[in-house]
Amino acid sequence: MKQKSIWLNEISNPSSDSLDKDITCNILIIGGGMAGMNVALNLTDEDDVVLIDKGEVGYGVTSHTTGKLTYLQGTIYRDIMKAYDFDVARDYLSSQKEAIDIALSNIEKYNIDCDLEKSDSFLFTTSDNGDLNKERDFLTKCNIKYEDAKLPIKIPCVDCFKVTDTYVFHPLKYIMALKSVVEDKIKIYENTRAIDLDIYEDYYLIKTEKGNIKTKKLVIATHYPFFIIPGLLPIKLGLEQSYAMAAKHINGKFNAINIDKEVYSIRFYKDNIIVGGFSHALSENIDYKGEEDKLLNFYNTYFENPIDEVWMTHDLKAHDYLPMIGRFDNHPNLFLATAFNKWGMTNGILSGKILSDLIKGKENKYESLFKINRPFSLEKAKNFTTDNFKIGKVYVESKLNKNKEFYNKVYVKDIDGISCGIYVDEEGNKHIVKNTCPHFKCSLIFNNADKTWDCPCHGSRFDIDGNLIEGPSVFSIKINDD
Ligand SMILES: Cc1cc2nc3c(=O)[nH]c(=O)nc-3n(C[C@H](O)[C@H](O)[C@H](O)COP(=O)(O)OP(=O)(O)OC[C@H]3O[C@@H](n4cnc5c(N)ncnc54)[C@H](O)[C@@H]3O)c2cc1C
């Protein structure tokens, strides 16, 4: 069993240049995931656009998704109705349907081979107490046709219905195709990490490791915003860790998700079944291997073929379940797309349309729905399943990791007044790193499944030698770095 995402198997990405000098541009997009690449696609008719990515485009959370293009998104409509009302939930539904249409039109227009398949979406409950009628009533009021159905796979299911106008695709093949479409018009720099942002009256200055970029308009599509935006973070956003796996299976030509506490998200890709779920909030004390095993045990209870790949990642949720896609009130040339609530295929594609419209001075009907400066509301947040408010508590408790032994041969120890994380490998070599996340100064915990040092507050991850794997931190934790 490989510890990697199935989407990485068939992909080769001819690498782009990395930035090694100061440059000036009109529009800079930071981040080449589903959001950033779709913004780029919609800006190929603009002059002087640049996109940078800290690694290779597409290799962030987008390469760890399940890749469904569906509007049947678990309990999202009841959650939005709880936070707002029916009208807001209906607008969100229409945005997701529009995103699917945009995806289909892009795939046709650019002749993209991304294994797109029509795939019925099933919504089901595993429990006698689960009530799908809220979703049935909501869809009926929105004039969406659904059919009561039996789940075509042998896992526990008490009630179920399906819609038939939904799709699945290969997310990385889609991104790589966008890359080749936009590269003629937009300069892409890979392995170019933005490390700081200075805001001036009529331009932004982005600092990278080997050159600065001066830009009039700036799009932040880095998943977790790589800098702290006053008033936005951290209380409006929460992170949820999820696990996924793939194994050989006859293609059932459908996808499914349930509405219960433990969520199973299922789809097929060629002759593979992909099962995801078992999400949890980040915390100071996670047994990653134990959490991953819950998913593997679930699969092994109902299926026979051995598991080929297993992977984990996290996605951002907003406190009121609506993504944040738009411009800042006090910075009309600063744009952001984040908090897709684990539905970033549709919402990333939609970000491309919304942000490019705003950048070009056009109206977009979803501008107010996804406004990023909407106020934080305790009332709306009270149903938020990711316990975001724990972040302060997590910070304090992570500090208690001082001189802690995580696992056999993995421990935290003060060396010369610096809190260090120490991993002893099979040959007995010690890998010593700083145990403090450069982003917010939380102490790191050891991830025993991926063998990484992970931040329990905001999700930054580092390898055992201190190299940064993913942000929001923009710095490594190598012992000799300042
Ligand atoms: C298990 C799981 C299953 C999912 N399944 C689905 C699904 O079936 N359907 C669906 O709609 N959604 C799904 N999602 C959600 C979806 O995968 C994400 O919301 C989406 O991929 C996020 O895209 P993004 O562009 O915001 O982020 P990313 O793909 O992470 O892209 C951000 C990019 O920014 C770059 N970057 C970061 N920091 C910097 C920096 N400082 N400088 C330069 N570049 C930087 C990164 O390298 C990365 O390439 C799932 C999520 C999870 C966790």
Helix/strand layout:
Blueprint: E1 23-30, H1 34-41, E2 49-52, E3 68-69, H2 76-83, H3 86-109, E4 117-118, E5 120-125, H4 133-141, E6 147-148, E7 159-163, E8 167-168, H5 171-182, E9 187-189, E10 194-199, E11 204-208, E12 212-220, E13 237-248, E14 254-258, E15 264-269, E16 272-281, H6 288-302, E17 307-318, E18 324-328, E19 331-338, H7 344-359, H8 378-381, H9 390-398, E20 405-407, E21 410-415, E22 418-424, E23 430-434, E24 445-447, E25 452-454, E26 461-463, E27 468-470
Parallel strand pairs: 1-2, 1-12, 2-9, 5-14, 12-19
Antiparallel strand pairs: 3-8, 4-8, 5-7, 6-7, 10-11, 11-12, 13-16, 13-17, 14-15, 15-16, 18-19, 20-21, 21-22, 22-23, 24-25, 25-26, 26-27
Helix pairs in contact: 1-5, 1-7, 2-3, 3-7
Text of the CATH class of the domain at 7-64 and 172-232 and 321-381: Alpha Beta
The CATH architecture of the domain at 7-64 and 172-232 and 321-381 is 3-Layer(bba) Sandwich
Sheet with most strands: 8 strands, mixed
Query: What structural class is derived from the secondary structure elements?
Result: alpha+beta
Please give a structural write-up.
By secondary structure, the chain is of the alpha+beta class. Among the domains are: 7-64 and 172-232 and 321-381, FAD/NAD(P)-binding domain, CATH 3.50.50; 390-470, Rieske [2Fe-2S] iron-sulphur domain (Rieske Iron-sulfur Protein). It is 22% helix and 30% strand. The strands form five sheets. Strands 1, 2, 9, 10, 11, 12, 18 and 19 form an eight-stranded mixed β-sheet that branches. It has an eight-stranded mixed β-sheet with strand order 6-7-5-14-15-16-13-17. A four-stranded antiparallel β-sheet has the order 20-21-22-23, with no helix packed on it. Strand 26 and strand 27 form a beta hairpin. Helix 1 runs parallel beside helix 5 (171-182). The protein is globular, with a radius of gyration of 22 Å. Bound molecules: flavin-adenine dinucleotide (FAD).
